[in-house]
Protein backbone atom coordinates (compact mmCIF):
# COMPACT_ATOMS: atom_id res chain seq x y z
CA UNK A 1 0.00 0.00 0.00
CA UNK A 2 1.56 3.33 -1.06
CA UNK A 3 1.26 6.64 0.79
CA UNK A 4 -1.78 7.84 -1.17
CA UNK A 5 -3.60 4.58 -0.50
CA UNK A 6 -2.72 4.79 3.20
CA UNK A 7 -3.96 8.37 3.42
CA UNK A 8 -7.14 7.47 1.59
CA UNK A 9 -7.63 4.62 4.08
CA UNK A 10 -7.03 7.02 7.00
CA UNK A 11 -9.83 9.28 5.75
CA UNK A 12 -12.21 6.34 5.37
CA UNK A 13 -11.25 5.14 8.86
CA UNK A 14 -12.00 8.60 10.28
CA UNK A 15 -15.50 8.50 8.80
CA UNK A 16 -16.03 4.96 10.11
CA UNK A 17 -15.04 6.11 13.59
CA UNK A 18 -17.77 8.74 13.32
CA UNK A 19 -20.47 6.05 13.26
CA UNK A 20 -22.48 6.33 16.49
CA UNK A 21 -22.89 2.73 17.59
CA UNK A 22 -25.72 3.50 20.03
CA UNK A 23 -27.62 5.32 17.26
CA UNK A 24 -28.89 7.98 19.68
CA UNK A 25 -29.82 10.86 17.38
CA UNK A 26 -28.74 14.39 18.26
CA UNK A 27 -28.92 17.81 16.59
CA UNK A 28 -26.10 20.30 16.50
CA UNK A 29 -26.63 23.87 15.36
CA UNK A 30 -24.41 26.81 14.43
CA UNK A 31 -25.91 30.29 14.07
CA UNK A 32 -23.91 33.21 12.69
CA UNK A 33 -24.71 36.80 13.65
CA UNK A 34 -23.68 40.25 12.49
CA UNK A 35 -22.66 42.67 15.23
CA UNK A 36 -23.85 46.10 14.11
CA UNK A 37 -24.15 49.62 15.49
CA UNK A 38 -27.67 50.28 16.65
CA UNK A 39 -27.78 53.83 15.26
CA UNK A 40 -26.20 53.40 11.80
CA UNK A 41 -26.63 49.61 11.25
CA UNK A 42 -23.01 49.49 10.08
CA UNK A 43 -20.74 46.61 10.95
CA UNK A 44 -18.65 46.59 14.12
CA UNK A 45 -15.06 45.70 13.17
CA UNK A 46 -12.89 43.29 15.09
CA UNK A 47 -10.31 45.94 15.94
CA UNK A 48 -10.50 48.94 18.25
CA UNK A 49 -11.37 49.76 21.84
CA UNK A 50 -15.02 48.93 21.19
CA UNK A 51 -14.55 46.28 18.51
CA UNK A 52 -15.62 42.63 18.51
CA UNK A 53 -12.43 41.63 20.31
CA UNK A 54 -13.39 44.03 23.11
CA UNK A 55 -16.82 42.41 23.31
CA UNK A 56 -15.24 38.96 23.69
CA UNK A 57 -12.90 40.35 26.34
CA UNK A 58 -15.87 41.73 28.28
CA UNK A 59 -17.51 38.30 28.17
CA UNK A 60 -14.40 36.23 28.86
CA UNK A 61 -14.81 36.17 32.65
CA UNK A 62 -17.95 34.06 32.25
CA UNK A 63 -16.33 31.43 30.02
CA UNK A 64 -13.78 28.83 31.18
CA UNK A 65 -12.01 28.66 27.80
CA UNK A 66 -10.56 31.41 25.62
CA UNK A 67 -9.69 30.72 21.98
CA UNK A 68 -6.52 32.56 20.95
CA UNK A 69 -4.61 32.86 17.68
CA UNK A 70 -1.17 34.49 17.93
CA UNK A 71 -2.37 36.37 20.99
CA UNK A 72 -5.60 37.61 19.38
CA UNK A 73 -8.81 36.67 21.22
CA UNK A 74 -10.99 34.94 18.60
CA UNK A 75 -13.46 32.95 20.66
CA UNK A 76 -14.81 31.64 23.95
CA UNK A 77 -16.26 28.31 25.06
CA UNK A 78 -18.08 26.57 27.87
CA UNK A 79 -19.60 23.10 28.24
CA UNK A 80 -22.71 23.97 26.20
CA UNK A 81 -21.41 26.03 23.29
CA UNK A 82 -18.51 27.87 21.72
CA UNK A 83 -18.36 31.40 20.30
CA UNK A 84 -16.06 31.89 17.32
CA UNK A 85 -15.60 34.50 14.61
CA UNK A 86 -16.13 34.25 10.88
CA UNK A 87 -13.85 36.15 8.45
CA UNK A 88 -15.19 39.71 8.95
CA UNK A 89 -16.12 39.33 12.61
CA UNK A 90 -19.49 37.57 12.23
CA UNK A 91 -20.15 35.96 15.62
CA UNK A 92 -21.00 32.25 15.49
CA UNK A 93 -22.46 30.20 18.32
CA UNK A 94 -21.93 26.44 17.98
CA UNK A 95 -24.17 24.53 20.36
CA UNK A 96 -23.09 21.07 21.53
CA UNK A 97 -25.37 18.44 19.93
CA UNK A 98 -28.53 17.72 21.92
CA UNK A 99 -31.50 15.37 21.56
CA UNK A 100 -34.04 18.01 22.59
CA UNK A 101 -34.89 21.19 20.67
CA UNK A 102 -36.10 22.69 23.94
CA UNK A 103 -32.63 22.23 25.46
CA UNK A 104 -31.05 23.95 22.43
CA UNK A 105 -33.50 26.82 22.88
CA UNK A 106 -32.53 27.20 26.57
CA UNK A 107 -28.81 27.19 25.74
CA UNK A 108 -29.25 29.87 23.08
CA UNK A 109 -31.25 32.03 25.51
CA UNK A 110 -28.46 31.71 28.08
CA UNK A 111 -26.02 32.96 25.43
CA UNK A 112 -28.26 35.99 24.83
CA UNK A 113 -28.41 36.70 28.57
CA UNK A 114 -24.61 36.84 28.58
CA UNK A 115 -24.05 38.99 25.51
CA UNK A 116 -27.00 41.38 25.23
CA UNK A 117 -26.13 43.53 28.28
CA UNK A 118 -22.60 44.02 26.90
CA UNK A 119 -23.93 44.98 23.47
CA UNK A 120 -26.41 47.36 25.10
CA UNK A 121 -23.59 49.20 26.88
CA UNK A 122 -21.66 49.46 23.61
CA UNK A 123 -24.68 50.64 21.59
CA UNK A 124 -24.62 47.51 19.42
CA UNK A 125 -27.06 44.76 18.47
CA UNK A 126 -27.03 41.27 16.98
CA UNK A 127 -28.64 40.71 13.59
CA UNK A 128 -29.54 37.36 12.02
CA UNK A 129 -29.71 37.82 8.23
CA UNK A 130 -28.13 35.98 5.32
CA UNK A 131 -26.16 39.07 4.25
CA UNK A 132 -25.03 42.23 5.99
CA UNK A 133 -27.90 44.75 6.14
CA UNK A 134 -25.83 47.90 5.54
CA UNK A 135 -22.05 47.60 5.16
CA UNK A 136 -20.39 46.65 1.89
CA UNK A 137 -17.61 44.11 1.64
CA UNK A 138 -14.98 46.70 0.73
CA UNK A 139 -15.61 48.25 4.17
CA UNK A 140 -15.28 44.98 6.12
CA UNK A 141 -11.71 44.12 7.15
CA UNK A 142 -10.77 40.52 7.93
CA UNK A 143 -10.06 39.42 11.47
CA UNK A 144 -6.40 38.62 12.31
CA UNK A 145 -6.45 34.97 11.24
CA UNK A 146 -4.06 33.94 8.48
CA UNK A 147 -6.45 31.21 7.32
CA UNK A 148 -8.86 33.87 6.12
CA UNK A 149 -6.16 35.97 4.46
CA UNK A 150 -5.10 32.95 2.38
CA UNK A 151 -8.68 32.07 1.49
CA UNK A 152 -9.31 35.67 0.49
CA UNK A 153 -6.28 35.57 -1.78
CA UNK A 154 -7.28 32.25 -3.37
CA UNK A 155 -10.91 33.21 -4.04
CA UNK A 156 -9.84 36.29 -6.01
CA UNK A 157 -9.01 33.95 -8.91
CA UNK A 158 -11.44 31.08 -8.35
CA UNK A 159 -14.69 33.02 -8.77
CA UNK A 160 -16.27 36.45 -8.58
CA UNK A 161 -17.96 36.56 -5.16
CA UNK A 162 -15.50 34.98 -2.73
CA UNK A 163 -15.03 38.26 -0.86
CA UNK A 164 -18.80 38.65 -0.54
CA UNK A 165 -19.14 35.12 0.82
CA UNK A 166 -16.42 35.58 3.42
CA UNK A 167 -17.21 39.09 4.61
CA UNK A 168 -20.89 39.54 3.91
CA UNK A 169 -22.77 36.28 4.56
CA UNK A 170 -24.12 34.54 7.64
CA UNK A 171 -25.74 31.12 7.90
CA UNK A 172 -27.52 28.58 10.08
CA UNK A 173 -25.99 25.10 9.92
CA UNK A 174 -27.48 21.92 11.38
CA UNK A 175 -25.60 18.69 12.00
CA UNK A 176 -26.99 15.18 12.44
CA UNK A 177 -25.24 12.00 13.49
CA UNK A 178 -24.97 8.85 11.40
CA UNK A 179 -24.98 5.29 12.76
CA UNK A 180 -23.21 3.44 9.94
CA UNK A 181 -22.14 4.02 6.33
CA UNK A 182 -25.59 3.06 5.02
CA UNK A 183 -27.18 5.58 7.40
CA UNK A 184 -24.71 8.24 6.27
CA UNK A 185 -25.54 7.65 2.59
CA UNK A 186 -29.26 7.82 3.32
CA UNK A 187 -28.95 11.11 5.23
CA UNK A 188 -26.41 12.68 2.89
CA UNK A 189 -28.53 12.06 -0.20
CA UNK A 190 -31.72 13.16 1.58
CA UNK A 191 -30.07 16.43 2.63
CA UNK A 192 -29.19 17.24 -0.98
CA UNK A 193 -32.68 16.27 -2.19
CA UNK A 194 -34.09 18.56 0.49
CA UNK A 195 -31.71 21.45 -0.24
CA UNK A 196 -33.97 23.50 -2.58
CA UNK A 197 -36.73 23.38 0.04
CA UNK A 198 -34.31 24.32 2.83
CA UNK A 199 -33.01 27.29 0.87
CA UNK A 200 -36.50 28.62 0.17
CA UNK A 201 -37.77 28.18 3.74
CA UNK A 202 -34.67 29.88 5.17
CA UNK A 203 -34.25 32.60 2.51
CA UNK A 204 -33.44 35.57 4.73
CA UNK A 205 -31.22 37.72 2.51
CA UNK A 206 -33.17 40.87 1.68
CA UNK A 207 -30.13 43.09 1.07
CA UNK A 208 -27.01 42.65 -1.04
CA UNK A 209 -24.27 45.28 -0.90
CA UNK A 210 -26.53 47.87 0.68
CA UNK A 211 -29.44 47.54 -1.79
CA UNK A 212 -32.60 45.40 -1.78
CA UNK A 213 -31.98 42.07 -3.48
CA UNK A 214 -34.54 41.79 -6.32
CA UNK A 215 -34.72 37.99 -6.58
CA UNK A 216 -34.44 35.07 -4.16
CA UNK A 217 -31.83 32.81 -2.53
CA UNK A 218 -29.05 35.39 -2.69
CA UNK A 219 -26.64 33.22 -0.68
CA UNK A 220 -27.01 30.46 -3.27
CA UNK A 221 -26.11 32.97 -5.99
CA UNK A 222 -23.05 34.01 -3.97
CA UNK A 223 -21.87 30.45 -3.27
CA UNK A 224 -22.34 29.51 -6.92
CA UNK A 225 -19.68 32.10 -7.75
CA UNK A 226 -17.02 31.32 -5.14
CA UNK A 227 -15.14 28.16 -6.17
CA UNK A 228 -16.99 25.40 -8.01
CA UNK A 229 -14.80 22.40 -6.98
CA UNK A 230 -15.46 22.93 -3.27
CA UNK A 231 -19.03 24.32 -3.25
CA UNK A 232 -22.54 23.18 -4.13
CA UNK A 233 -23.43 19.54 -4.79
CA UNK A 234 -21.09 16.61 -4.23
CA UNK A 235 -20.27 15.25 -7.70
CA UNK A 236 -21.62 11.71 -7.95
CA UNK A 237 -23.74 11.79 -4.77
CA UNK A 238 -26.39 9.58 -6.41
CA UNK A 239 -23.95 7.18 -8.10
CA UNK A 240 -24.04 3.50 -7.13
CA UNK A 241 -20.53 3.59 -5.67
CA UNK A 242 -21.08 6.59 -3.41
CA UNK A 243 -19.97 6.27 0.22
CA UNK A 244 -17.06 6.98 2.56
CA UNK A 245 -14.50 5.94 -0.06
CA UNK A 246 -15.94 8.25 -2.74
CA UNK A 247 -15.92 11.17 -0.30
CA UNK A 248 -12.29 10.40 0.55
CA UNK A 249 -11.45 10.35 -3.19
CA UNK A 250 -12.99 13.81 -3.52
CA UNK A 251 -10.97 15.16 -0.59
CA UNK A 252 -7.72 13.78 -1.96
CA UNK A 253 -8.29 15.78 -5.18
CA UNK A 254 -9.31 19.01 -3.43
CA UNK A 255 -7.05 22.09 -3.78
CA UNK A 256 -6.32 22.93 -0.15
CA UNK A 257 -5.36 26.66 -0.35
CA UNK A 258 -3.12 26.38 2.73
CA UNK A 259 -1.94 23.87 5.33
CA UNK A 260 -1.12 24.33 9.02
CA UNK A 261 2.54 23.84 9.96
CA UNK A 262 4.52 24.17 13.19
CA UNK A 263 5.57 27.63 11.98
CA UNK A 264 2.02 28.71 11.11
CA UNK A 265 -0.19 28.32 8.03
CA UNK A 266 1.57 27.84 4.68
CA UNK A 267 -0.10 28.92 1.45
CA UNK A 268 -0.35 26.01 -1.01
CA UNK A 269 -2.76 27.40 -3.61
CA UNK A 270 -4.08 24.76 -6.02
CA UNK A 271 -1.98 21.89 -4.70
CA UNK A 272 -4.20 18.99 -3.67
CA UNK A 273 -4.10 16.91 -0.51
CA UNK A 274 -2.64 14.01 -2.51
CA UNK A 275 0.18 16.26 -3.78
CA UNK A 276 0.94 17.94 -0.46
CA UNK A 277 1.09 14.66 1.48
CA UNK A 278 2.75 12.64 -1.30
CA UNK A 279 5.49 11.37 1.02
CA UNK A 280 3.94 11.20 4.49
CA UNK A 281 0.80 10.01 6.25
CA UNK A 282 -1.98 12.25 7.47
CA UNK A 283 -2.10 13.13 11.14
CA UNK A 284 -5.47 13.66 12.80
CA UNK A 285 -4.93 17.43 12.58
CA UNK A 286 -4.21 17.10 8.85
CA UNK A 287 -7.51 15.28 8.38
CA UNK A 288 -9.46 17.90 10.34
CA UNK A 289 -7.95 20.64 8.18
CA UNK A 290 -8.75 18.83 4.92
CA UNK A 291 -12.36 18.31 6.03
CA UNK A 292 -12.70 22.02 6.81
CA UNK A 293 -11.60 23.16 3.34
CA UNK A 294 -14.67 22.01 1.44
CA UNK A 295 -17.83 24.12 1.56
CA UNK A 296 -20.36 21.79 -0.05
CA UNK A 297 -24.03 22.38 0.75
CA UNK A 298 -23.80 19.15 2.77
CA UNK A 299 -20.46 18.31 4.35
CA UNK A 300 -19.15 15.13 5.98
CA UNK A 301 -17.04 15.26 9.11
CA UNK A 302 -17.82 12.71 11.81
CA UNK A 303 -21.40 13.88 11.37
CA UNK A 304 -23.46 15.19 8.45
CA UNK A 305 -23.45 18.99 8.31
CA UNK A 306 -26.35 20.65 6.43
CA UNK A 307 -25.15 24.08 5.34
CA UNK A 308 -27.85 25.58 3.11
CA UNK A 309 -29.76 27.77 5.58
CA UNK A 310 -29.45 31.52 5.98
CA UNK A 311 -28.96 33.05 9.42
CA UNK A 312 -32.45 33.56 10.89
CA UNK A 313 -34.27 34.73 14.04
CA UNK A 314 -34.51 32.11 16.77
CA UNK A 315 -38.11 31.00 16.10
CA UNK A 316 -37.15 30.07 12.54
CA UNK A 317 -34.00 28.29 13.69
CA UNK A 318 -36.21 26.19 15.97
CA UNK A 319 -38.54 25.49 13.02
CA UNK A 320 -35.52 24.42 10.96
CA UNK A 321 -34.34 22.09 13.74
CA UNK A 322 -37.81 20.54 14.00
CA UNK A 323 -37.98 20.16 10.21
CA UNK A 324 -34.68 18.27 10.14
CA UNK A 325 -35.50 16.22 13.23
CA UNK A 326 -38.87 15.13 11.87
CA UNK A 327 -37.33 13.92 8.62
CA UNK A 328 -33.92 12.62 9.69
CA UNK A 329 -34.36 10.85 13.01
CA UNK A 330 -36.16 7.80 11.59
CA UNK A 331 -34.53 5.78 8.85
CA UNK A 332 -37.91 4.65 7.48
CA UNK A 333 -38.92 8.30 6.92
CA UNK A 334 -35.69 9.04 5.07
CA UNK A 335 -36.14 6.00 2.87
CA UNK A 336 -39.70 7.08 2.09
CA UNK A 337 -38.52 10.59 1.23
CA UNK A 338 -35.64 9.39 -0.97
CA UNK A 339 -37.85 6.91 -2.80
CA UNK A 340 -40.59 9.50 -3.31
CA UNK A 341 -38.13 11.87 -5.02
CA UNK A 342 -35.60 9.88 -7.14
CA UNK A 343 -33.88 13.00 -8.47
CA UNK A 344 -30.52 13.78 -10.08
CA UNK A 345 -27.93 16.48 -9.44
CA UNK A 346 -29.28 18.30 -12.51
CA UNK A 347 -32.80 18.21 -11.01
CA UNK A 348 -31.53 19.87 -7.82
CA UNK A 349 -29.76 22.62 -9.78
CA UNK A 350 -32.82 23.16 -11.97
CA UNK A 351 -35.07 23.50 -8.90
CA UNK A 352 -32.70 25.92 -7.20
CA UNK A 353 -32.50 28.02 -10.37
CA UNK A 354 -36.30 28.17 -10.50
CA UNK A 355 -36.51 29.26 -6.86
CA UNK A 356 -33.74 31.86 -7.28
CA UNK A 357 -35.76 33.46 -10.07
CA UNK A 358 -39.35 32.99 -8.88
CA UNK A 359 -39.32 32.19 -5.16
CA UNK A 360 -42.58 30.56 -4.05
CA UNK A 361 -43.84 30.81 -7.63
CA UNK A 362 -41.03 28.47 -8.70
CA UNK A 363 -40.94 24.70 -8.89
CA UNK A 364 -39.17 21.93 -6.99
CA UNK A 365 -38.76 18.73 -9.03
CA UNK A 366 -41.47 19.83 -11.51
CA UNK A 367 -43.96 20.49 -8.70
CA UNK A 368 -45.10 23.87 -7.43
CA UNK A 369 -42.94 24.99 -4.52
CA UNK A 370 -45.93 25.45 -2.14
CA UNK A 371 -47.24 21.94 -2.86
CA UNK A 372 -43.82 20.37 -2.37
CA UNK A 373 -43.14 22.24 0.87
CA UNK A 374 -46.52 21.49 2.39
CA UNK A 375 -46.06 17.79 1.64
CA UNK A 376 -42.61 17.70 3.21
CA UNK A 377 -43.66 19.77 6.23
CA UNK A 378 -46.52 17.33 6.80
CA UNK A 379 -44.11 14.40 6.60
CA UNK A 380 -41.82 16.03 9.17
CA UNK A 381 -44.71 16.94 11.45
CA UNK A 382 -46.03 13.37 11.48
CA UNK A 383 -42.77 12.12 12.96
CA UNK A 384 -42.21 14.69 15.70
CA UNK A 385 -43.30 14.31 19.29
CA UNK A 386 -46.45 16.31 19.96
CA UNK A 387 -44.68 18.94 22.09
CA UNK A 388 -42.16 19.65 19.27
CA UNK A 389 -44.66 20.04 16.44
CA UNK A 390 -45.36 23.60 17.54
CA UNK A 391 -41.83 24.58 16.50
CA UNK A 392 -42.81 24.06 12.84
CA UNK A 393 -45.45 26.82 12.92
CA UNK A 394 -43.20 29.59 11.49
CA UNK A 395 -42.40 27.41 8.46
CA UNK A 396 -46.07 26.51 8.05
CA UNK A 397 -46.91 30.22 8.02
CA UNK A 398 -44.34 30.90 5.27
CA UNK A 399 -45.74 28.01 3.21
CA UNK A 400 -49.33 29.20 3.74
CA UNK A 401 -48.58 32.84 2.83
CA UNK A 402 -46.04 31.94 0.12
CA UNK A 403 -43.59 34.48 1.53
CA UNK A 404 -39.88 34.41 2.31
CA UNK A 405 -38.29 35.94 5.38
CA UNK A 406 -36.34 38.20 3.03
CA UNK A 407 -39.43 39.68 1.41
CA UNK A 408 -41.09 40.14 4.82
CA UNK A 409 -38.03 42.09 5.97
CA UNK A 410 -38.25 44.41 2.97
Task: Walk me through what this model shows.
It contains 17 helices and 17 strands. The chain has 410 residues and is of the alpha+beta class. The strands form 5 sheets. Strands 1, 2, 3, 4, 5, 6, 7, 14 and 15 form a 9-stranded antiparallel sheet that branches. A two-stranded antiparallel ribbon has the order 8-9. It has a two-stranded parallel ribbon with strand order 10-13.
Overall domain count: 1
In total, how many beta strands?
A: 17
Q: Estimate the global geometry from the Cα principal axes.
A: globular
User: What is the CATH C-level name?
Assistant: Alpha Beta
Structural class: alpha+beta
Strand content: 15-25%
Largest sheet: 9 strands, antiparallel
> Portion of residues in helices?
40-55%
Tell me, rounded to a whole number, the average pLDDT: 96
Regarding quaternary structure, what we see is single chain
Task: Tell me what the CATH architecture is.
Answer: 2-Layer Sandwich
Which fold name is given in CATH as the topology? Creatine Kinase, Chain A, domain 2
In terms of per-residue confidence, which ranges show pLDDT below 50 for 5 or more consecutive residues?
A: none
Briefly characterize the structure.
Helix content is 45%, strand content 19%.
Write the layout of secondary structure elements.
Layout: H1 3-17, E1 27-37, H2 52-59, E2 65-69, E3 72-77, E4 81-85, E5 91-98, H3 101-122, E6 124-127, H4 146-158, H5 162-168, E7 171-176, H6 181-201, E8 207-208, E9 211-212, H7 218-223, E10 231-232, H8 244-252, E11 255-259, E12 266-272, H9 273-276, H10 284-292, E13 295-296, E14 298-300, E15 304-310, H11 314-328, H12 331-340, H13 345-358, E16 363-364, E17 367-368, H14 369-382, H15 386-389, H16 393-401, H17 405-409
Parallel strand pairs: 10-13
Antiparallel strand pairs: 1-5, 1-6, 1-7, 2-3, 3-4, 4-5, 7-15, 8-9, 11-12, 14-15, 16-17
Helix pairs in contact: 1-8, 6-12, 6-13, 11-14, 14-16
